[in-house]
Here is the input.
Amino acid sequence: MSVTERTLLCRDDQLAEGATLELECHGASVIALRHNGELHAYWNSCPHLSVPLNWGPNRFLDPSKQYLQCATHGALFELGDGRCISGPCQDDQLARLILERDGDHHYVVAGQPLPEQPSNLRREALDEIARQ
Ligand code: FES
Here is the structure.
């Protein structure tokens, strides 16, 4: 599945420097943030288990506010490129959304893949038991 049409993500004035925002695009959760003046957007899906990163509504940053942090196993991700610098998915990367700016609005470009569905570990464990 992919983004079928150019889609409005946010207005430029919605994100101050250092701020994060949880948004939605085609039913999938998105992390938008501003870092060093640039707006970045990633699918809210940890590369370790494809689960959302946040601790709660719009809570993505570690205590130092220098990294995105996954609430499940604590992986830390660079704000500017989504690379994991610590945790079970070290050197893996958050999937970036390709954006284009049109005036004061940022749009998600059509044709890019949507994120994987989150892993359902309980279901996988029950399936494993059923196979034994
Ligand atoms: S699910 Fe994110 S670090 Fe494990």
